[in-house]
Amino acid sequence: MFAGFGSIKRIERLLIDIKKNVGDNDEATLRDVISEIGEKSDKNARSIKSYVVNSLKSAELRNYRQMESLHWLTNGLTTRHRLPPLRGWASSPDLLLELQDFVLSTKPESVVELGSGVSTLVIADALRQNGSGKLISLEHSSHYGSKTRLMLERDNLSGWVDLKIAPLESWEGEHLSDDSEEELYWYSQDCLKDAWDIDLLLVDGPPAATCKFSRYPAMPAIVGSLKDGAQVWMDDTTREEESTICSVWGEKYGFSVEFVEMEKGLGVLKKK
């Protein structure tokens, strides 16, 4: 869209060349050229202004929606300490609010999440409000795992979460990567031995930089432990890899797939 600025500069250089070479008899033609250039410049300026205004309106609406979600999210929490910064690498308020509502309304007994953080706190708090349930959270980073553990401890939520530091190991199972030379990694499966009859699986890891389609192994590794009627949630489906994974999972494992409009996108898979 902003290529219009470059076009205007090229036109200005062209106009200088024309002035150098045009004769007095071509003065009328030159005026016509200048007039046409002015019209095109005005049109480019209007297009740029429209783009900027629409972009600002969209950003304002997105920010409002996140503030609205944060308001309702914090109203529903029973924790006493402030939340860490959200959005960016962390979960966005709209996803966290959706998680909170789901856990409070459906009262799952077994939740598994891949990738810990603020979502761990929100799920644990909702389970405590329900009075039952357990969350198994897998985190490949001991650094971020320690941060999550500290959040849970200061709000007395540790008893609702089995937080496991699960190092990334070579994955030899089914995968979507078409690069035969790429090393594939996923969480240590020893950390999932006690994960059974899962009501909700939240997939927010491993990081995308781990390998191509890094989150794909979640379903082949865990599908046998899902309870009838279970749901699988995939964060970040505005990214092509995550949305592709959801579509392939749905077709291969017989799940319905719904893409929910959120800041980073959410894929919701349900057993048909």
From TrEMBL:
Source taxon at top rank: Bacteria
Pfam families, per the entry: Methyltransf_24 (PF13578)
GO molecular function: methyltransferase activity
GO terms of biological process kind: methylation
Keyword annotations: Methyltransferase, Transferase
Alphabetical list of Gene3D superfamilies matching this protein: Vaccinia Virus protein VP39
Name of this protein: Methyltransferase domain-containing protein
Native source organism of the sequence: Halomonas daqiaonensis
